[in-house]
Amino acid sequence: MRQIILDTETTGLSWASGNRVVEIGCVEMVERRPTGRTFQCYLNPEREFEAGAQEVTGLTLEFLADKPLFAAIADEFLAFIEGAELVIHNAAFDVGFLDNELRLLGPQYGKIADRCTVEDTLLLARQRFPGQRNSLDALCKRFDVDNTHRQLHGALLDAQLLAEVYIGLTSGQSEIGFEVGAEAANEAAVTFEVDVRAPRPRVLVAEEDSAAHEARLAQLRKKAGKAVWDAWAEAAEAVAPLEAMPA
Fold it and tell me: What is the pLDDT of residue 242?
């Protein structure tokens, strides 16, 4: 699977207000591993920065004055991302700006969605860490990604950091040592017979363990609104009357 980790820097917060892209940074990954291929360019926005935007990026109109317009790099950029899954933090922001740049070039360029699928790491982070800060800096800290060199926002640097965060955010069991081959699994398998009519063993839980369990559930409900355990408990209550019926 080919993925492009992408970030942009802009002259302001809203493309609808006439703001433009001033930097694009992309990092290519194949099968979740960086290939070493990147795409980065600064762009002349042909307009002023909004208040505060220049301080965030450290870019100036003087520096960008001799940089290409988006029209000059559009084909190269689109060829780089063609057919890939784009991984973007707060994707609506970046895709909105890029779609606007393409719209300004003419309808023949279409939209980003015509060429790529998009994965939003901000949405992923909010699902995994509800109620917590999920900025790129916060996620770097959470996943032990070194971002001490990130004094200013830069599209390529942020894409490189996001690539590391994304791996941590989406790591599955097969990536942390739980995957076993079919042959090994078969060797480890043990067959035995069970009398399904025999009474089921009962496990008695100590009072202090039960209290600790309830306290933990209360914390989860406060943070996320509902604990997964609640759904299991509801299902168990629904099944209990059926199990009590005579065969």
Answer: 47
Does 220 reside within a domain?
A: yes
Give the angle 108-113-117 at the CA atoms, nearest 5°: 145
Mean pLDDT by 10 residues, the chain (247 residues): 97 97 98 97 97 88 97 98 98 98 98 98 97 96 88 86 96 44 40 45 57 66 58 52 47
Active-site residues, by number, are 153
Q: Which of 77, 83, 79, 75 is nearest to 106 (CA)?
A: 75
Question: Range of 60's domain?
Answer: 2-174
How many domains does the structure of the chain reveal? 2
Q: Is residue 100 part of a domain?
A: yes
Task: Identify which of 59, 55, 6 has the alpha carbon closest to the alpha carbon of residue 29.
Answer: 6
**Does residue 137 sit in the same domain as residue 240?**
no
33-42 and 21-30: which strand pairing? antiparallel
pLDDT at 215: 67
- Of 79, 103, 99, 74, the residue nearest 88 (C-alpha): 99
Smallest Cα–Cα separation from 102: which of 123, 75, 84? Answer: 75
Identity of residue 228 = V
- The pTM of the full predicted model, rounded to 2 decimals, is 0.69
Strand, helix or coil at 150? coil
Rounded to a whole number, what is the distance in angstroms from the first to the last CA of the chain? 52
- Entry field: residues in the chain: 247
Taking alpha carbons only, the member of 49, 56, 219, 55 closest to residue 136 is: 56
Provide the phi-psi class of 119: left if phi over 0, else alpha when psi is between -120 and 50, else beta. Answer: beta
